[in-house]
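> example.struct
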């Protein structure tokens, strides 16, 4: 009987690797992580990169190679076995799926994507379900693990091997829900391939990550890939781009909306008032509605939902409010897109003098810097422009791009060091000031060139205020 390609691949891996309990530990898709007696699957479509990765894997003592490209011994200069499977990318993920199917689990899988609010929605939904005594696991930019004990994660959406290994682990520990934060790059690169979401959420779509996707159309299409993997999808109807999309082509996905009609929109303040007891907790209304919608779809009683949402904790680095007696109020938020800047000023509508401290990331979409500057200028009486993650760009050039959007340059203070900028902000702040500190939230480092410098806005501000 003729073997199919998946059987051929499995057989090759088993015959050319050292025995381990899980088959996914017997192969590697990242050449830098290859260990002795592991088979390397070289997935890159670019021939030069593919051969470079193979060479790196061989140096790391790979026991065998699988590639989709036509290669010869002359290309790889080694005697170790190699296998050519032209559609390798379309089949290798099924190895992970076979392991997941073994669990025969009733765990519900939830995927959350969007330009703004996906991390907040992920954590708030996890918190709400946890409040109903459910066992909830998370894979997100805030970390990986069971709510609320998360281990650091370097990606919004990790690579497919990491995702499936944790997926397998969570199922083996009888998890009730797994919530995965799905970035546009993660969806586009197939890091979530094969995962079937019981529910998905698209929080909104605005222009972002054009440094990677190049056009807004490609960015939108990457986000919408989640729908092909979802049984039920919740969509924010008030997101202008989402409102224009014809969802009827997604025949296998049941589409549901939040903020769909006028009555719903008029009731959002009442929802926040009825469900949130603490006025200092400023959750984005769409995050609350998505959370409520998923819980309702799961058949959880209204009284339990209300109690659960009313006991939500603040998401660290997201709309955190810090009141002081002599130095005014501080709002710390991760806002990093033009829309998230506009939203936070609108939601914290105030007559108090506003100071904003912010920067823009290096090696990212440069076009939004001027627009961000324009939004900050509109609402702020004083502005601190400082570093965010400059990466390989010069801070002065980033600041120059931002200044193009600011009419009254005299109200701007340029200070590269974020610590120094925060220190100056706190020193100059007065009792009735409202200070917005945007861009970093609860992140624990600043990227400057190839350096990762330890810094956390929340912790640093708390330390400075205590000293004052």
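> example.seq
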């Amino acid at each position: 009987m003729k073997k199919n390609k998946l059987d051929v691949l499995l057989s090759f891996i088993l015959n050319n690797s050292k025995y381990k309990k899980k088959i996914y530990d017997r192969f590697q898709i990242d050449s830098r992580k290859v260990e002795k007696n592991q088979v390397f699957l070289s997935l890159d479509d670019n021939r030069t990169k593919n051969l470079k990765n193979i060479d790196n894997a061989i140096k790391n003592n790979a026991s065998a190679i699988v590639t989709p490209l036509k290669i010869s011994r002359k290309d790889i200069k080694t005697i170790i076995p190699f296998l050519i499977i032209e559609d390798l990318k379309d089949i290798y993920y099924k190895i992970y799926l076979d392991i997941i199917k073994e669990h025969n689990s009733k765990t519900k899988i939830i995927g959350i994507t969007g330009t703004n609010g996906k991390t907040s929605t992920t954590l708030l939904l996890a918190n709400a379900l946890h409040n109903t005594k459910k066992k909830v696991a998370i894979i997100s930019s805030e970390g990986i693990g069971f709510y609320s004990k998360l281990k650091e994660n370097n990606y919004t959406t990790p690579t497919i091997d990491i995702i499936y290994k944790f997926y397998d682990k969570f199922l083996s520990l009888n998890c009730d829900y797994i919530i995965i934060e799905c970035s546009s790059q993660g969806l586009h690169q197939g890091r979530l391939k094969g995962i079937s979401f019981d529910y998905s959420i698209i929080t909104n779509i605005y222009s972002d990550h054009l440094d990677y996707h190049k056009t807004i159309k490609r960015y939108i299409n990457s986000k919408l890939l989640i729908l092909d993997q979802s049984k039920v999808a919740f969509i924010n109807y008030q997101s202008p781009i989402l409102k224009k999309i014809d969802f009827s082509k997604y025949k296998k996905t049941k589409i549901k909306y939040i903020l769909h009609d006028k009555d719903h929109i008029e009731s959002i303040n009442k929802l926040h008032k009825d469900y949130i007891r603490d006025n200092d907790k400023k959750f984005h209304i769409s995050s609350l509605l998505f959370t409520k919608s998923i819980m309702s779809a799961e058949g959880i009683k209204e009284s339990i939902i209300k109690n659960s949402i009313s006991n939500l904790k603040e998401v660290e680095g997201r709309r955190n409010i810090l009141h002081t007696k002599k130095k005014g109020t501080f709002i710390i938020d991760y806002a990093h897109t033009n829309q998230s800047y506009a939203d936070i000023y609108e939601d914290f509508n105030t007559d108090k003098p506003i100071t904003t401290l912010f920067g823009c990331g290096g090696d990212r979409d440069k076009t939004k810097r001027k627009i961000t500057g324009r939004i900050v200028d509109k609402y702020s009486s004083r502005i601190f422009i400082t570093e965010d993650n400059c990466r390989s760009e010069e801070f002065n050039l980033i600041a120059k791009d931002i200044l193009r959007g600011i009419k009254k340059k005299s109200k701007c203070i340029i200070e590269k060091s974020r610590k120094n900028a925060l220190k100056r902000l706190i020193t100059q702040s007065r009792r009735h000031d409202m200070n917005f500190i945007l861009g970093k939230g609860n992140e624990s480092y600043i990227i400057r060139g190839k350096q990762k410098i330890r810094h956390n806005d929340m912790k640093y501000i708390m330390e400075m205020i205590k000293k004052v």
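> remarks
The radius of gyration is 24 Å.
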